[in-house]
Structures are given as structure tokens and as C-alpha cells.
């Protein structure tokens, strides 16, 4: 297939939408369009990124109000049909608030806003945004957040771990107090992924790391796999 | 009838509340040694019309579950008062 077309949702208060579009278009050479929050038109995109920032001013709770925007109704339907959706930082918070991912992000344990490069261990390659990575690899990717402490009840945490839904873990311990050092998780099907670190800030060697590229590049392989998925599943069943 | 719902949202006991801890520590610094714990939450006032108290109450409960509180990390309770009172 041709390279996937990306949509980057723009909420009032998003501030990494431009960087995400830059990473996709200018650095990775992909087709990408901004998707305005007040529209429900996904413009035929194959994959969607919810960028970082402070949608709706983080009013009430980070990500809480963005869930009810017209574009999110369309994004939710897209995700339920198996479409790849990546939530970065505030995007992760939105996916949790929308119920597309389990858990929630709360205030960092030490109350500090953390802005630095973190090392992430790849824990699962069974997702739309990690299928091109190697399990066990360590990626250098920046974090910048005040509310990135992943919280969830113990039963759900156990099921996330058991289902292999932990995609990325902080290799040197969670700087924000996240349970099980979780930096990013996926939906059960693997098409929805949320993470606090910013892969779009790690695509250009000039800025110190290109380790974020693999997340965006994974989507093409995932979509190809989906088209050949019926055959793969049949082969799996016959083994 | 018009009502005012006074909604209280607080972090669940099992959820880390670093803001509450920081406030507790500051109260300790001020000499309030009797303070053993602080939980920091939100207070929300919602003014609404309702057919009667039960109907309004069930609507407010729904608002809490759908938006005002995130039950993954928070608990809520509310009091419903007549707006005229």
C-alpha cells in the first residue's frame, strides 16, 4: 500500500500539533493533515495522533473536556473499528478519559513538572506503534509533563500486565511515580497506544535522538499486517 | 423547580495525592502538629432545573459519573438544595 496518511488532532490548547506534523511530514516524508477539534471529518486518514499540550486549558482534569469534542466522537468510532490512534502526553490523558485506554494520569509524585530525556524499554511489539521496534530495546525520548503518573486499580493493572498491554516502561524507574514504571500502554487489540514521552521530539539527530521515528514508522507495517491479517490468523490456527 | 447541587470530588484513598501531602507538610511547618493527613479535591456548584428532587438528583449523579468525576481515580458525593433557599 501507499504510505499511510496521518491526521493530527488540533484542540484549543494543543501545543505539540505543529511538532507532530513537522515530524510526520518534513522528517518522515509522510502525508499528514491537521484535524480541527470542532469538525467530525477525519479526511480519510489511516492513522491519528492526539498531540501534547493542554487541551481546553486542562480544565476540570487533563483531557476530560477534549473527550466530548466532535472530532473525538469520530476518533472513538475510528478506534473501535481498529484504526491506529496514538496519544502523546495530553493525547494519552485524553485516551484514558475517553475510555479508549484503561487507567488515568495524575499529578507527578513529587509535584514537579519534569522536562528531560528518559530511557524507555520496549515491552510489547504487538501494537500499531511498536511493531517495527525490537522488544527489550531502549529508546531515548524526552518527557515534559506535570501530570504523568499512571494510576489504575490493582485488578486492572494485573490484567494490563497479563495481556501484554504495557508497551513502554521507564528503564531507570518512573520519574513521575507511575505504577510499575509504566510510560505507555495499548488497548487490548493494540491499535490504540498512549504514552507520556514525546516521540515527535525524537526524530531529528540535531535534537539529540531519532529513537522516536520507529513509533511512527510502525504504522505502515501494522496496516499491511492487518490486510494480510486473515491469512496470518488462519496460519496461526492451523499450527 | 431550580436546584443547586454542591458536588465534592476527592481522590480515592488508594490514589497517591501529592498535593494533599504537600499541604499537610506545610501545615506541619506552621505548627499544626495535630494534622495527620490532607486530601485535596474539588468543589463544584451546578445550578439546574428539575421536575422534582429525585429527578434532579439522578441527573446530577449521571453528570458526576460522565464528566465531573473520573471514577478511576476519584470519588464524589453531592448535596442538592433548593435554589430559592
Description:
The complex is a heterodimer of chains A (239) and B (85). Chain A has 239 residues and is α/β, with parallel strands linked by helices. Chain A has one domain: Class I glutamine amidotransferase (GATase) domain (Rossmann fold, 3-Layer(aba) Sandwich). Helix content of chain A is 27%, strand content 24%. In chain A, strands 2-1-3-4-11-10-9-6-7 form a nine-stranded mixed beta sheet, sandwiched between helices. Chain A has a two-stranded antiparallel sheet with strand order 5-8. In chain A, strand 3, helix 2 and strand 4 form a beta-alpha-beta unit. With 85 residues, chain B is an alpha+beta fold. Chain B has one domain: Phosphoribosylformylglycinamidine synthase subunit PurS (Mth169, Chain: A, 2-Layer Sandwich), CATH 3.30.1280. Chain B has two helices and three strands, in the order E-H-E-H-E. Chain B has a three-stranded antiparallel beta sheet with strand order 2-1-3, covered by helices on one side. The longest helix of chain B is centred in the last third of the chain and has 16 residues. The mean pLDDT of chain B is 95. At the A-B interface, loops of A face helix 1 of B.
CATH topology of chain B: Mth169, Chain: A
Q: How many DSSP helices of chain A?
A: 6
Cα gyration radius of chain A (Å): 17 Å
Question: Per the principal axes of the C-alpha atoms, what is the gross shape of chain A?
Answer: globular
Q: Quaternary arrangement of the chains shown?
A: heterodimer
Architecture (CATH level 2) name of chain A: 3-Layer(aba) Sandwich
The whole-angstrom Rg of chain B is 16 Å
N/C terminus separation of chain B? 12 Å
Amino acid at each position: 500500500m501507499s504510505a499511510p496518511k496521518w491526521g493530527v488532532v488540533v484542540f484549543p490548547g494543543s501545543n505539540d500539533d505543529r511538532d507532530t506534523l513537522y515530524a510526520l511530514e518534513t522528517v518522515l516524508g509522510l502525508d499528514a493533515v491537521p484535524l480541527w477539534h470542532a469538525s467530525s471529518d477525519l479526511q480519510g486518514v489511516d492513522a491519528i495522533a492526539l498531540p501534547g499540550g493542554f487541551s481546553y486549558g486542562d480544565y476540570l482534569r487533563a483531557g476530560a473536556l477534549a473527550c466530548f469534542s466532535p472530532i473525538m466522537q469520530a476518533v472513538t468510532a475510528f478506534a473501535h473499528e481498529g484504526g491506529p490512534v496514538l496519544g502523546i502526553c495530553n493525547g494519552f490523558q485524553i485516551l484514558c478519559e475517553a475510555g479508549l485506554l484503561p487507567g488515568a494520569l495524575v499529578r507527578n509524585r513529587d509535584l514537579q513538572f519534569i522536562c528531560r530525556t528518559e530511557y524507555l524499554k520496549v515491552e510489547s511489539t504487538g501494537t500499531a506503534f511498536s511493531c517495527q521496534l525490537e522488544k527489550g530495546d531502549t529508546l531515548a525520548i524526552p518527557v515534559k509533563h506535570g501530570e504523568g503518573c499512571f494510576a489504575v486499580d490493582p485488578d486492572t493493572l494485573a490484567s494490563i500486565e497479563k495481556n501484554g498491554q504495557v508497551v513502554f516502561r521507564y528503564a531507570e524507574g518512573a520519574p513521575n511515580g507511575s505504577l510499575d514504571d509504566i510510560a505507555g500502554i495499548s488497548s487490548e487489540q493494540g491499535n490504540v497506544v498512549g504514552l507520556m514521552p514525546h516521540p515527535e521530539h525524537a526524530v531529528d539527530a540535531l535534537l539529540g535522538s531519532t529513537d522516536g521515528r520507529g513509533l511512527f514508522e510502525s504504522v505502515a507495517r501494522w496496516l499491511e499486517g492487518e490486510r494480510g491479517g486473515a491469512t496470518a490468523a488462519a496460519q496461526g490456527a492451523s499450527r | 423547580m431550580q436546584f443547586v447541587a454542591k458536588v465534592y470530588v476527592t481522590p480515592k484513598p488508594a490514589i497517591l495525592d501529592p498535593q494533599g501531602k504537600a499541604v499537610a507538610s506545610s501545615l506541619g511547618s506552621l505548627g499544626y502538629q495535630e494534622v495527620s493527613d490532607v486530601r485535596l479535591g474539588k468543589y463544584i456548584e451546578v445550578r439546574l432545573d428539575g421536575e422534582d428532587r429525585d429527578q434532579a438528583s439522578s441527573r446530577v449523579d449521571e453528570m458526576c459519573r460522565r464528566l465531573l468525576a473520573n471514577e478511576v481515580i476519584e470519588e464524589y458525593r453531592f448535596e442538592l438544595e433548593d435554589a430559592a433557599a
